[in-house]
Design brief:
There is one protein chain. The protein is mainly α and 133 residues long. 59% of the residues lie in helices and 8% in strands. Strands 1-2-3 form a 3-stranded antiparallel β-sheet, with no helix packed on it. β1 and β2 form a beta hairpin.
């Protein structure tokens, strides 16, 4: 049985995986942490969820407040109108193109320089670290 000195309440046993011997205070902290983080998650996730269900629900039902947790009177006319607009689709494809191109350029520029000069004292190492950072 080996004890991790950095986290004395954690005991590691060979072959049995990971076992915890936690105090009451640890359990209280974990419970409070779980509750607070769950509330924060719901406060962030519900508005995003509502946008999605409101976008596919009947606009009259959304305006009257009948849509809370589930879509009511599914209506996809808004999506049809948006997808008819060629500018929206062009903007979407431009976003994908610029993301892929930018990622590719970034990888091409940042990955090769450290390869030929792994040691700090090698020729060009200082210059390549200056250029990248």
């Amino acid at each position: 049985m080996a004890i991790n000195n950095r986290f004395p309440s954690v005991i590691l046993r060979k072959g049995k995986g990971f076992e915890e011997n936690r105090s009451f205070e640890d359990k209280v902290f974990d419970t409070i942490n779980f509750v607070v983080l769950t509330v924060v998650f719901l406060l962030v996730a519900y508005p995003l969820y509502f946008i999605i269900i409101a976008s596919i629900s009947d606009p009259q039902k959304v305006a009257s407040g009948q849509v809370l947790f589930f879509p009511v009177g599914i209506n996809l006319d808004g999506y049809r109108e948006v997808l008819k607009n060629k500018g929206v689709m062009r903007g979407f494809f431009n976003s994908v193109y610029y993301t892929a191109l930018g990622t590719t350029i970034n990888l091409i520029v940042t990955l090769p320089p450290p390869t030929p000069c792994p040691a700090r004292t090698s020729t060009g190492a200082r210059a390549s670290r200056f250029f990248i950072s």
